[in-house]
Specification:
Four copies of one chain form a homotetramer. By secondary structure, the first copy, chain A, is an alpha/beta fold. In chain A, helix 3 (96-107) runs parallel beside helix 8 (248-271). In chain A, strand 5 (86-91), helix 3 (96-107) and strand 6 (113-119) form a beta-alpha-beta unit. The longest helix of chain A has 24 residues, at 248-271. The first copy, chain A, folds into two domains: 2-80, ACT domain (Alpha-Beta Plaits); 86-284, Rossmann fold (3-Layer(aba) Sandwich), CATH 3.40.50. Chain A has eight helices and 13 strands. At the A-C interface, strand 11 and strand 13 of A face strand 11 and strand 13 of C. Strand 2 of chain A pairs antiparallel with strand 2 (30-39) of chain B, so a sheet runs across the interface.
Amino acid sequence: MTRHILTLTCHDRPGLVHAVCGGLLDVGGNILENAQFTDPDSLTFCMRTVVDTSVDDPAVVQAAVAERLADTQANLRVRLESERPRVMIMVSKFDHCLVDLLYRWRTGALAVDLPIIVSNHADCALIAAQYGIPFLHLPITKAVDGPTSKPAQEARIKELIAEHRVDLVVLARYMQVLSDDLCEHLRGRAINIHHSFLPGFKGAKPYHQAHARGVKLVGATAHFVTADLDEGPIIEQDVARVDHTHTAEQLVALGQDTERLALSRAVRFWAEDRILLVGDKTVVFR
Amino acid sequence: MTRHILTLTCHDRPGLVHAVCGGLLDVGGNILENAQFTDPDSLTFCMRTVVDTSVDDPAVVQAAVAERLADTQANLRVRLESERPRVMIMVSKFDHCLVDLLYRWRTGALAVDLPIIVSNHADCALIAAQYGIPFLHLPITKAVDGPTSKPAQEARIKELIAEHRVDLVVLARYMQVLSDDLCEHLRGRAINIHHSFLPGFKGAKPYHQAHARGVKLVGATAHFVTADLDEGPIIEQDVARVDHTHTAEQLVALGQDTERLALSRAVRFWAEDRILLVGDKTVVFR
Amino acid sequence: MTRHILTLTCHDRPGLVHAVCGGLLDVGGNILENAQFTDPDSLTFCMRTVVDTSVDDPAVVQAAVAERLADTQANLRVRLESERPRVMIMVSKFDHCLVDLLYRWRTGALAVDLPIIVSNHADCALIAAQYGIPFLHLPITKAVDGPTSKPAQEARIKELIAEHRVDLVVLARYMQVLSDDLCEHLRGRAINIHHSFLPGFKGAKPYHQAHARGVKLVGATAHFVTADLDEGPIIEQDVARVDHTHTAEQLVALGQDTERLALSRAVRFWAEDRILLVGDKTVVFR
Amino acid sequence: MTRHILTLTCHDRPGLVHAVCGGLLDVGGNILENAQFTDPDSLTFCMRTVVDTSVDDPAVVQAAVAERLADTQANLRVRLESERPRVMIMVSKFDHCLVDLLYRWRTGALAVDLPIIVSNHADCALIAAQYGIPFLHLPITKAVDGPTSKPAQEARIKELIAEHRVDLVVLARYMQVLSDDLCEHLRGRAINIHHSFLPGFKGAKPYHQAHARGVKLVGATAHFVTADLDEGPIIEQDVARVDHTHTAEQLVALGQDTERLALSRAVRFWAEDRILLVGDKTVVFR
């Protein structure tokens, strides 16, 4: 038996679950897990199903379901559970999220392939080497009164994404704002970790903002990257309790634990096809 | 349109979801929520579905699904979402859980009917009166060297459950151990709150045990009542952080917040048919 | 022996703890608890001490410490631990925080006196009556194109605060913005509960804002009231996990649990003199 | 100015804080942080103070305080804040806690020295090498019907502790029970991480026990090592929410996050002299 993961979003109407299950039954499928949700505002139907069948080609399974669905607008996808998404990690100098993702990858807790790590700094090269992942240093330079190399750097990133057949880009504390064009190119397939409990403390130095404000909890937010900075659909959040004794620097250190947890969960959810986009919000079938 | 809640547990086999959805489609049903889980150890299939249909009789919906299922062993039930389970609360002297449940009931957060409150003490009579719920004082007495009135008291409780068509009994800090017979009679329809993070600190005075042990978190556990004391299937748990400055009495006070939250969630889950029993464990579709 | 609570804020300098302890020793004091913190930005020294002594007059204890301190700028206060602060609760229609505070007051978990409850609506009169607390309905009216009664209402509130010797005003979901003048009058002695995780979702309908944004945690913030709306020093925060299945109305219901917990803790901290103000931030000796 | 950390436990009596502060004032000390607690059961006075002074020798500071205290039974210690405790990590095959500690050490979040890592298996040698820490493989062997090498192995561990002037031993998932003798030798200076929320699920395979019991939260407990297995004084605990969908293996993976957090906090508390032992319990000045 082969295990497949099916995801579907489409406009709601009666009979959708029945149609999907009928299609799965047509290929001898046995449903192991099934989660479903209809967004009441947009009437978007969302579904994630894990199914066992003797058919080992997901395209065959998908075709069987598509025929029953008969909805050309439906966003339907079937993949093998064993298929590992290809993830490009981008990072700058802070390496705590990178190390955490690499550790989970090595132990098998994060079932993805890591073809390449890209950074605008050279600092993380050694860590990448220790885990045996190719590391590419793509700095962004700027001549005095002259042009920046950012467009060229982003063009190279796009090439790498194509070359390495990258499914997901993870900004693991990559401290450069992506251009609107690259954001659009990566729509729905780039996850960022912001080091605050959004929408509080957008922008730079959120822990210092949090310290100045005297909050009693700090947090981190994993979200999809959009051109609207720190406004992309939220995937996962986490918080930690703090108090008056913590300096801004200690908030940075404490907050790193919440960043690690929120980001690694978001990437795992993505890798397991648990995240569906509905407008500006996410449906996460945990 | 009328909204129904369907719950099903049965032995797993291919086509179950398709059969259920087919039955629902036969009565013009549109599925709004659907959660499903197959327990890998026992191969028990568990399903909870919320469905809209023009049929307003749940028996008709249930018959349509049962016909498609064709499984006489299946544990299938369809009810109206608007149907309010009838809950008997039992309490002794501590009233924090009682007050919390009554408050949630009054504000509509807990969609149940409360036909009667039973206590082995008279203390909570005033609170019951303030919320307009009949209160019955059923003390347990014991003559010196003589018999206890407990069998008679429990017989009266059984009568009350029948008279008031009680669906669920909630032991909201009822400090009497129920007889094995009554536990069996209430199998799957009596929820207790234990004031510790089970399986730690079973038995009496758990907060004092926790204090003596110097734990850094205290908790509460809502579970189904079984003859095996504090060993019934766990429904919900919650914890609160404590430290060395807390006396045992302060742990009692702090822990009451976790008791309230864990018990009220468990009762709400039950009232919304979100809890399915699989062996000694619960499946909770949150 | 009589138990006193000492609190002190002053500019930091060597010998402060020694001076305080010397003063306490002069009156035969034995220190039971002592917490201390120096804010590195403002160099403000903060201290809270619980002391047993045979002297039963806190003024005598305070004078002994003041003499040793010899700092006329110091903000020093000694009170009996058994002295119960007098708290005026203000509320509108949502009563969950009110009921929670009243319950904790009745069981002794909140060691305060409640001389009066004030509301701009009549809804909570019955609850106040059930707990035996005087309830005053002070509506705010506004003639068409005419003046509002708000200045007169606030003048009456000021009178009540004086008449009832109120130490602390608690805005337990009081849905009127206080005037700048009243905010200033109540500086450091009025606590509000805001139903969001500040600084996210300031202003009206925060749960609806949170729902629209698709956050994965909602929260509540207890803070001192200042003229700058929702910007006062934060005392306590709490959060609860939510997901895509929650409607805005369900966020409201879920969030009420975090509001209750955050507000009741903040009031208890205040009642136990655990909160010291340093600029726009709080030091909370938990 | 030099920063010192003072810790003190002794029998409670009036004047203790004054005596300590007097001694600190005698060496021109300015107290920056001060935490204090008197255990009401044993009347043990506990204190931790951070002080700035121009004296750079902690022995001089300690002598000044000791003279004022005049209590030969007092457990008094003064150290430089900048002094880094020397920690020996012991590990078996699971490396998640080891990697976490090494990462925090490398980034400076954990201010300790790591002279040596000891393991009864060879698996973690590469990780130790990547961080540049000497790794010693000390297997325990057992001849058929013959003696075990455990006494010899433990003797070697004792030697290493002496050779490397080890202050603290951290059992970062070291899966061997220490002999009573070694436990006694390491009293108060060996921390273990147990992968359950103690006192629930003592002994082997706690996650499998938790899975079988159907708990809704799993946890981890950092505690001092004692001859009484899993019964040593608890230092720190953490929990994570789980549900029916988690297999025992997934509980293992999820629980590793709580193990990492609880253990790293416990080690940091110890390194900062925040943990005082009172009988079988800990006072942790966070």
